[in-house]
Write a structure and sequence with these properties.
heterotetramer, A: 317 residues, alpha/beta, five-stranded parallel beta sheet, B: alpha/beta, five-stranded mixed beta sheet, 22% strand, binds thiamine diphosphate, binds magnesium ion
Chain lengths: 317, 323, 317, 323
């Protein structure tokens, strides 16, 4: 799990640098600080299980086994990208790995995942579907609608709320009333609220949630309390001008709670891993990231004609 | 051939396609009992795994259709009235119409959405919209609007067997109308207009619910010595532009009839296509017969006043004939 | 209150007869059996308070002080109708009485009422807004969204769920998971669940809810358990053919719980009214209904040109 | 006159109208901080009673706008990106566009909805739609698409002072462009096209974001001896049909440029209007320059390839000039 978390962190730090160097088109929303959630959850999933993701989707993509090369090339807008350059950062998806897509519409994942979970139920082979979403997304009504349908139909879906205390630039308590987990409890869905910066806690909560869903007991809900260290999107400093919406101290205090540092320390102090092993992992990850960047940079530009082939299958638009 | 009601033809298509492919599943509000009669009996035959009533939550239903289709099922979603398409519009416009491109073509989305459209029953503004033009604007969904029993059956089968999202617009007030339907298994191709009435003086392009008043108009016009050719596009996406233009090349005059509100209607678009590709053949202005830019009033007389009928069509034809 | 209830009942029985006689265009959804809810609630409201209603809106219209003549003419599609024949049964509204409209879109009232409650809050004169909705409507996500906004903004809105055990033709428990009131509780909103066939119980629950909202304490929620005696719509027998979705016994059992009979008996047994008084009321109501039908029948047909004046204010469509 | 950025002109209009009428209230997601810069500073001046951040719940926001407007306020709702209009589409199409008629005209609905539209920044399919044509189809809402700073300010003021729902489509990628804006208080009337460039050989009707490439094309065409007249409808509902037709009557040739997807676009509708009312003056087919029926790809090169530019406009003009 540490390797996955470190991979996400490094890929995204690379992206941040690339963005500010002007190498990335479009908007980039980084997951830095929330890595424990994606990794702790996806550890319980196989390629045939599905996850849906958000505008902040790189971490989920990688945690679910997506290839950093293919993702990086996508964000670079290349033909070699996982979506052939058609989707970009907000739309990374790899259906072969069960990654049914990051999504630029806040809340869109609820219904799509519920539909995927219905399909999983009909397939009858104990697959599950996981819906990652933010605290802000929990205010979209489709959240409640999906809770209702999945409860009624007893669908194998796990709703994972990443509560990072902001909904875009709004502090969560200004736009989200009450506890989000209570909204799920209202349907009798089992809920767990965990420290989202503690990968082991997330892992444990997910274990029971996934078992619950897999054995046919219906939906489950997890709320992971966490924080995004970077801005809502990388470009935010450019347009928010003099209007900061959070303090440097706040960011600093969360940097101290960094999920990677914490897990690293836990591993070392519990003797689950030694410095050398961790260094090895980190070196390996750095190599993979370099390789991914190289792959992305060297990739051919997107094919301009492809869009006409892809709108429909076997039909011109 | 057997004479069948429009709604019965739809019902048969659903039965046959669900029989043919067990990956076909159907859901929506009260589809088990069936308000329009199109889904009647399906539950009994196919069971609740494949036919499911849903809660009232259109925004989620359209999204679920995307999720289930992307996971390998052929999804039929019944939206009841076409006005409820608006309620579920987000996942239609932002997901259904875009997800395949956004994922670089990783998935197919075999989704058929049924919705009953059209006015004429005093169902008032929120249950009477004809909104295929909105769907045409989206770019990523097919739109079909069958005008008779045979096309209803054939186009629905093509939609369900197809691999792309398709909106199947049911002429809800015309469910009881009878028409000849082939007895054998058949499908009707997308993108091929039909010419249910040949003529030489003027082309009337007419869509869905508007075929009936169009035929009435054609009869009256014939009595006045005007030979009208009726072209029914049958599918609006894909649109048989060539078929339409071919008829105009023959007649040189055209009227487009559509139950949409006028602005940015299917009629507008078809007129625009003709004004481009068929311009050289045109002998007269292109007239549109549409609903004015208003929503449907409740009172039957007020509703009838804004709904296009044979009279409006005749007037438009006479105008383009210079009479 | 009895007069109001009896008025609703008689007006609707008249409409039912009119519909089956072929005198009414369009769809008609009757409120018969649920009268205690509208009347118990509206008793606490004045003309400046607002209510939003549903496709089953005649009862709310009358209970809030709408004129039966104007409503009847509307349902007849006449120029003399409250909406000049433009709206019909599903859209009866009288803004001068604070009746901001029946609505044909299930769930539409949530957001409209929330907006009206915001306006009331800004006006600052202690008005409240009430949103009537069905159990089926509670599955629309706008319900949750509106609970969230009204809690955050502390809006003077009362959500009144009329749980009549059916959502169109679906038994509620097949389409509605858990208790609807729990969905409101999740936001910390005070909830009361009452017997919706007991007008006094409804009245009492509303009293505290309205006080709560009026004194600036924010939204409140009431769930009234009731039953619709007639079909979902009057035409249902015509198209549901042989497929009944509920038993005659069930209907019969609820007929016994008729809110009018019950209130009448209570009034008599508690000596709050005597037979003669009630007879008077009933006679008066019968006269009003006759008058309303006459008014409707004699009204001019709707003006066909009006639609062009009404789409926009001061602008042609 | 002072040169101002487009987004600044919008910001000024909001300030001035909120100052002018205290019934004007504004809400939406993160309007307090302002992503585009159009609502910057309003919170500080007018306070949280009149400027409010909302949760992410577009379906409720559009409905709330209706409720608050029907209760006597002048509501400005910021939807951020025009794609989110789909999320809140139900209350737009079923309520905002219909409620006044349905209630027999009991209410007015002074609502202005702001939404940023258009591609060109690699924001991909879900943040790039140009969807004014969908709104035009609804019939019950005004739609304005200002192309420059002065029109942005003047039309927004008209919208806010007006008594009908109006969608104000912000050319989000053009926010930084400068233009002359009158210094005095002024409004720009709805339904009056402007002719920012007079010419005699061909009419180019161009909308919103497309004016910039249109001007570039006009320059190149002038060098080739072609005198193009540019007509900017400015408001799509109401549409200045006479103004457009007048220009075509002068030139006899027309190209319509619109960032909409082609099918049922504003361009289609304008072409249809000309093919009817302006037919007798036409010397050549009416060409449309639009986005093909696809959604926006992410990669900058692929996006540029589907977005109309000066080259496509020039090619269309040459085609109608028979060159
Ligand atoms: C339907 C819709 N509305 C608004 C937006 C703009 N937007 C993008 S991300 C975001 C905030 C999401 O907050 P949250 O769900 O908490 O996720 P986080 O960004 O914190 O990861 C908003 C408002 C959008 N993309 N889609
Ligand atoms: C958005 C929308 N979806 C579906 C319908 C069709 N419909 C009308 S009433 C109804 C059931 C409503 O149930 P409930 O809210 O419990 O109200 P009740 O009819 O029981 O009074 C449905 C599904 C509709 N009018 N609007
Ligand atoms: Mg968040
Ligand atoms: Mg009910």
């Amino acid at each position: 799990m540490y390797e996955q978390m470190f991979l996400i962190r490094c890929v995204e730090e690379q992206m941040s640098a690339d963005f500010h160097a002007g190498n990335l088109p479009g908007a980039v929303h980084l997951y830095i600080g929330q890595e424990a959630v994606a990794v702790g959850v996806c550890e319980h999933l196989s390629d045939t299980d599905k996850i849906s993701s958000t505008h902040r989707g790189h971490g989920h993509f990688l945690a679910k086994g997506g290839d950093p090369k293919l993702m990086m090339a996508e964000v670079y807008g290349k033909k070699t990208g996982i979506c052939q350059g058609m989707g970009g950062s907000m739309h990374v998806a790899d259906f072969s790995k069960g990654i049914i897509g990051a999504n630029g519409i806040v809340g869109a994942g609820f219904a799509i995942t519920t539909g995927a979970a219905w399909a999983a139920q009909l397939d009858g082979d104990n697959k599950v579907a996981v819906c990652f979403f933010g605290d802000g997304a929990a205010n979209q009504g489709v959240f409640m609608e999906s809770l209702n349908v999945s409860t009624l139909w007893n669908l194998p879906v796990i709703f994972v709320c990443e509560h990072n205390t902001y909904s875009e630039f709004s502090p969560s308590d200004t736009v989200t009333a009450g506890q989000i987990s209570d909204r799920a409890s209202a349907f009798g869905i089992p809920v767990e609220v965990v420290d989202g910066n503690d990968v082991v806690a997330v892992w444990q909560a997910t274990k029971s949630a996934v078992e619950h869903a897999r054995n046919g007991s219906g939906p489950a809900f997890i709320e992971a309390k966490t924080y995004r260290i970077h801005g809502h999107l990388e470009a935010e400093k450019l347009f928010l001008g003099g209007g900061p919406y959070r303090s440097d101290e706040e960011i600093e205090s969360w940097r101290k709670k960094c999920p990677l540092k914490r897990f690293r320390n836990d591993l070392l102090s519990s003797d689950a891993a030694c410095e050398a092993e961790i260094d090895d992992i980190e070196t390996r990850v750095h190599e993979r990231v370099e390789e991914a960047v190289k792959f992305a940079q060297e990739g051919e530009p997107a094919d301009e004609n492809l869009v006409f082939d892809l709108m429909f299958l076997g039909q011109k638009p | 051939m057997t004479r069948k009601r429009y709604i019965q033809a739809i019902n048969e298509a659903l039965f046959e396609e669900m029989e043919r492919d067990e990956k076909v599943i159907l859901f929506g509000e009260d589809v088990e009992i069936s308000m329009f009669g199109d889904t009647t009996g399906l539950l009994k035959r196919f069971g609740r795994n494949r036919i499911r009533n849903s809660p009232i939550c259109e925004a989620t239903l359209t999204g679920m259709a995307v999720g289930a289709a992307a996971s390998g099922y052929r999804v039929v979603l019944h939206m009841m009235f076409s006005n409820f398409i608006y309620t579920g519009f987000d996942a239609i416009a932002n997901q259904m119409a875009k997800l395949r491109l956004m994922t670089g073509g990783q998935i197919k989305l075999p989704i058929t959405v049924l919705a009953g459209y059209g006015a004429g029953s005093s169902n008032a503004a929120q249950h009477s919209d004809t909104n295929h033009a909105l769907l045409m604007q989206l770019g990523g969904v097919n739109v079909v609007a069958p005008a008779n029993s045979a096309d209803a059956k054939g186009l629905l089968k093509t939609a369900i067997r197809g691999d792309n999202p398709t909106f199947f617009m049911e002429a809800v007030g015309r469910g009881g109308e009878m028409g000849e339907v082939p007895d054998e298994d058949f499908t009707t191709p997308f993108g091929v207009a039909s010419v249910p009435h040949a003529g030489s003086d003027v082309t009337i392009v007419s869509i869905g619910t508007m075929l009936k008043p169009t035929f009435a108009a054609v009869k009256v016009l014939a009595e006045q010595g005007i030979s009208a050719e009726v072209v029914d596009p049958r599918t609006l996406v894909p649109l048989d532009e060539d078929g339409i233009v071919r008829s105009v090349q023959k007649t040189g005059r055209v009227v487009v009839v559509d139950e949409s509100r006028d602005r940015c209607s299917a009629a507008s678009h078809i007129a625009a296509v003709i004004a481009d590709k068929g311009f050289s053949a045109l002998k007269a202005p292109i007239k549109r017969v549409t609903v004015p830019n208003v929503c449907m009033p409740y009172a039957p007389n007020a509703e009838a006043a804004v709904l296009p009928g044979a009279d409006e069509i005749i007037a438009a034809v006479l105008a383009v004939m210079g009479r």
